[in-house]
Write a structure and sequence with these properties.
heterodimer, A: 115 residues, seven-stranded mixed β-sheet, globular, B: 112 residues, six-stranded mixed β-sheet, five-stranded antiparallel β-sheet, 0% helix
């Protein structure tokens, strides 16, 4: 089946630093990728939709200047958490679909801890 | 705004018995529903889906039932196996749109 690779799996950083998370579709081209965040005991919350070659579409309440998304190619999307703060500590996960209304394939997620 | 709700955070069943996981949604525009399974430290994996034109979809031990009038769906696993122990997420999206909303998940534990 389709594989989505997400790196790093976990990261610990100091407050104020920036963290980049990569999401790659390994065996298919994904014109659209999705970024989610999950706080403990809460649902996966869609943060933004990443479109190859164009600006990402952010969900209401998600700061686009803080969570920078770049979808530079059909197989790579990156999420950069800029000037991270402890409240940004969360589980971030990406997904991609081969087509519209198809099931999503998820990366393995990134646990971010900001000290 | 929690458009997809899984009101049971956990469920424990005996091996061989039926597991029933429930999910409710509020958005009448949702047309496509999926269940994902998630093991610790891994991303969710697709399990089974159903579109609104159906009220039942079956795949081996897994069956999803959709009640559109009640805005309710359920996942039945029978017989349950210890390897089914995981967190199960219900998800929904409008048709022809990958904008998917997830429930909070239900942790299923199947005891040997």
């Amino acid at each position: 089946g389709a594989v989505v690779s997400q790196h790093p799996s976990w990261v610990i950083c100091k407050s104020g630093t920036s963290v980049k998370i990569e999401c790659r579709s390994l065996d298919f081209q994904a014109t659209t990728m999705f970024w989610y965040r999950q706080f403990p005991k809460q649902s996966l919350m869609l943060m933004a939709t990443s479109n190859e070659g164009s600006k990402a579409t952010y969900e209401q309440g998600v700061e686009k200047d803080k969570f920078l998304i770049n979808h530079a190619s059909l197989t790579l999307s990156t999420l950069t958490v800029t000037s991270a703060h402890p409240e940004d500590s969360s589980f971030y996960i990406c997904s991609a679909a081969i087509g519209v209304n198809e099931k999503l394939f998820f990366g393995s997620g990134t646990q971010l801890s900001v000290l | 705004d929690q458009q997809v709700k899984q009101n049971s955070p956990s469920l424990s069943v005996q091996e061989g018995r039926i597991s029933i996981l429930n999910c409710d949604y509020t958005n009448s525009m949702f047309d496509y529903f999926l269940w994902y399974k998630k093991y610790p430290a891994e991303g969710p994996t697709f399990l089974i889906s159903i579109s609104s034109i159906k009220d039942k979809n079956e795949d081996g031990r897994f069956t999803v039932f959709l009640n559109k009038s009640a805005k309710h769906l359920s996942l039945h696993i029978v017989p349950s196996q210890p390897g089914d122990s995981a967190v199960y997420f219900c998800a929904a999206s409008p048709y022809n749109n990958n904008d998917m909303r997830f429930g909070a998940g239900t942790r299923l534990t199947v005891k040997p």
